[in-house]
Amino acid sequence: MKVFFTASALLTNFHTIENPKNTLMRKISLLLLTTFLLLSNTIPAQVVNDDDEANAYRLKRKYPDERSAVISDVEEYEFGAGKGDGNGPVVTAVMRQQVQFISLREACMVQYGEFYNKFSTITKIKQYYKSNNSFVNYTSRNRPIDQSATSGDIFYDDSRVKYFNIIIPKMGMGAMVELEKFYKDARYLTRVMFHSPYATQEKTIRFIVPAEVQLDFREINFKGYTITKSTETEGRKTVYTFKMKDLPPMANEDNALPAGYTYPHIVVLVKSFTADGVQQKGFENSGDLYKWYRYLYSKADNQPGVVKAKVDELVKGKTTEMDKAKAIFYWVQDNIRYIAFEDGYAGFVPQTVQEVYKNKYGDCKGMANLLTEMLKQAGLDAHMTWIGTKHLPYTYAIPSLCVDNHCISTLYIGGKPYFLDATESYVPMGEYAYRIQGKEALVGKGDDHEVIKVPVADINQNKIITQASFSLNDDILKGHLKVTFTGEERTNFHQFFQDLPTDRKKEVLQRVLEFGNANLNATNIKTSDLANREIPVVIEGDIDLSNNIIRDDKEVYAGIDFFPRKLSGFMPDDKRVNPYEFNRIYTAEDEIVLNVPGYKIKDLPEAFNQQANDYGFSGSYTQEGSKIILKKSLAIKTGTIPKEEFTNWKDFLKKLKDFNNNIVLVEKDPNYVAPKETPAVVPAKTPVKPGAKPATPAKTPVKTPVKTNPVKKQ
């Protein structure tokens, strides 16, 4: 995997920092500027030839926002034979790459490097600077940086990166990096991308394959791109070449689909090979892939007996398979912490049952392993399962390690599969996170396997339902509000709320009802049983919305749409390349009733209804006697807004914003007579006979206070 980082021309950025509040940013910029100047002074004098200068100006006009570009990127893979895990025969690969950069500004800095881990090594990495028409080795003065590549969301992995800070101090000047990387097992060479974060004049990908190795190249997202292909024979080797010209930089955009969905790339499959005269199988189908997964799974020396006592405790008194499964599944969700951990084969081999149970944490493989074995201890039909989340666009029609990035457990009850993801806290049995819905799962069944799809939730399963009733009395607008979360919206709430400190939970419940609207004030808040993940989350309370009205003599303007979902953050600009990805499907249904006794309703906004394949909205204001009723329904149906829908999507967002900004106009009715309250009838006293004791007056029954469900303590 390549490392591409861009840095702005530091001199330019430094002078843009003028705000006195940005003292820290100024110090950081001064430090970067000093580093830049020191590094620049160590670079020998360079001569820019006329062709390079002209090319830089041409590229600058074509890519005005870029500070540097790649003139040529040649990436070559040569395959051979070797020994892998357990000294068994494998296919190896050597990657050689040469990347030439050019500056499109008077000064720029780029970073270029390569990742490696226990399955690969970087055998060469060199930096050159260009002077006139020749490249001069600069590695002796500027050695590559070698550091851990563990990201913030991974507890530990074995990935490292070697990279250069490349200084190009003048427009038209060039630099080059050469590197060589050795793959110990070509199974772990999965895909090769054409695009990078740099504008590239020409990209070449070449595969050199000996006669004893049979490869399959799967061309992904080639449609719509001009990619030339050629095949040549060099002795007993076949050379496959793919070329692409004028590649724009890979867009770095918020809420974008992963690159595998949109950018052209090649998935490399080792189908078979010959070693020492014996034909060896690679990955030709899902069965071959499963056989490899099973081999790695067998490396986990499980001792499931250590959890037997806990399983017996959890299922005690449970008579149905479903109740037993829930007890175990929910216990693992609530008591085992998810921590990503990737270290060589540990990136593929699950942690053992006993390790995860003892440590009370594990990665997805470790948690799935523990859950599967605990279910088995309860006599249930559970199986270790491999799956790719929606981050990956592939199916098992491509038998490659790039198809999967996650592990779960599959449980069969009455012949029906249930997909249990222990890393998803507060997900009830039978419901699935959006990230695995519709994805193929590879279920291990001993010597056999099964590929089945995870069901896709109906959009109506995931709802945010808001119901409110208000009354307008002079300058007072008060009422009651109830918000209900179902499906994955309920799960999302739990995953956020349950991890909060106890002293913040009351505040958060209030904020939920106030929708971030400073004009609202919520009191008397009640909730459903927040300890039960299987029922809808209900939060309700009294609301004072008096600050949301404007009085003009006899007229009153009231904005009762106090929680508009404008989706303004999803408005694409003209330069956007990628589709918008919501990472969820849901429906938001709102019904607000405004009681206006003593007022005439003078004006109501027009209804708005627009439906598309990926989204939809309907909204209307209607009158029923002295009531104004606002109903809205917003649906994100597929989770993605494709680029070809952007024009319609922009129009939709504008209309939605206009509808959400509507207000209602009412006027005091001078002829209105408030209904008189009927006086309470006092029953006549029964005369007391002489000598009789007066009857004991009946006690007024005391109302039992309504109990609210306590918030679960953490």
Task: Walk me through what this model shows.
The protein has 714 residues and is α+β, with helices and mostly antiparallel strands. It is built from twelve helices and 39 strands. The strands form nine sheets. An eight-stranded mixed β-sheet has the order 6-5-10-3-2-12-15-14. A hairpin with a 2-residue loop joins strand 14 (227-234) and strand 15 (237-247). Helix 7 runs antiparallel to helix 9.
Characteristics:
single chain, 714 residues, alpha+beta, eight-stranded mixed β-sheet, 12 helices, 38% strand, globular
Which SSEs are present, and which pair or pack?
Elements: E1 2-7, H1 10-15, H2 23-41, H3 50-62, E2 68-83, E3 89-103, E4 108-116, E5 120-131, E6 134-137, E7 145-148, E8 156-157, E9 160-168, E10 174-183, E11 191-193, E12 199-210, E13 213-220, E14 227-234, E15 237-247, H4 259-262, E16 265-275, E17 278-281, H5 286-297, H6 308-315, H7 321-335, E18 337-338, E19 341-342, H8 353-359, E20 361-362, H9 364-377, E21 381-387, E22 406-413, E23 416-420, E24 440-445, E25 448-453, E26 463-473, E27 476-485, H10 487-497, H11 502-514, E28 521-527, E29 537-544, E30 549-552, E31 555-558, E32 580-581, E33 586-595, E34 599-603, E35 608-611, E36 615-624, E37 627-636, E38 640-641, H12 646-660, E39 664-668
Parallel strand pairs: 2-12, 8-19, 18-20, 26-33
Antiparallel strand pairs: 1-4, 2-3, 3-10, 4-9, 5-6, 5-10, 7-9, 11-16, 12-15, 13-16, 14-15, 16-17, 21-22, 21-24, 22-23, 24-25, 26-27, 27-29, 28-29, 30-31, 31-39, 32-38, 33-37, 34-39, 35-36, 36-37
Helix pairs in contact: 7-9, 8-9
